[in-house]
Amino acid sequence: MGYAFLAMMGWCGTKWPGWWRGPRPPQPDPWWWVVGLAGAVGGIVAGTAFTPIIGDAGFFAGALTGFAGGVLVGSIVDGIGGMTNKG
User: Fold this and answer.
1) Is the pLDDT of residue 22 over 70?
2) Contact 73/40 with Cβ under 8 angstroms?
3) Listed range (1-10, 21-30, 31-40, 51-60) with the worst mean pLDDT
4) Neighbour count for residue 6 (Cβ, 10 Å)
5) Residue 26: its pLDDT value, please?
6) Euclidean distance between CA atoms 6 and 25, whole angstroms
7) CA distance 39 to 55
8) Chain centre to alpha carbon of residue 26
9) Residue 23: is the preceding peptide bond cis (ω within 30°)?
10) Three-class SS of residue 7?
11) Considering only CA atoms, which of 1, 5, 4 is closest in space to residue 62?
């Protein structure tokens, strides 16, 4: 259950602010799900890697760690995808 929570927080770290209310990009990237999946994996990795450091700091610390891992890995994958799409 902890890994599912970290994956969810990592996926949430890959979306742009206000994505649910618009404005939407003109044409969505066909590989948007890869960035979300990478963010989910980044959230799990960050949460697992930093658990010895944050210890039992609480729910919010774990959520923030998973979110930060998702932002980092999702941004890297999105940047790599952006370089390949520019042709």
Assistant:
1) no
2) no
3) 21-30
4) 27
5) 56
6) 27
7) 22
8) 22
9) yes
10) helix
11) 5
What whole-number distance in Å separates Cα of residue 13 and Cα of residue 50? 17
Residues 6+ apart with CB under 8 A from 14: 35, 36, 38, 39, 70, 71, 74, 75, 78
pTM of the model: 0.74
Q: What is the spatial distance between Cα 13 and Cα 17, in angstroms, rounded to a whole number?
A: 10
Q: How many residues does the chain have?
A: 87
- Tell me which residue has tokens 């259950």: 1
Average pLDDT over every residue of 23-37: 70
Cβ atoms 50, 72 nearer than 8 A: no
| pLDDT, position 8 | 83
The answer to which of 4-8, 65-69, 77-81 has the lowest mean pLDDT is 77-81
DSSP string over 33-58 = HHHHHHHHHHHHHHHHHHHHHH-S--
DSSP state of 28: -
First CA to last CA across the chain, in angstroms? Answer: 41
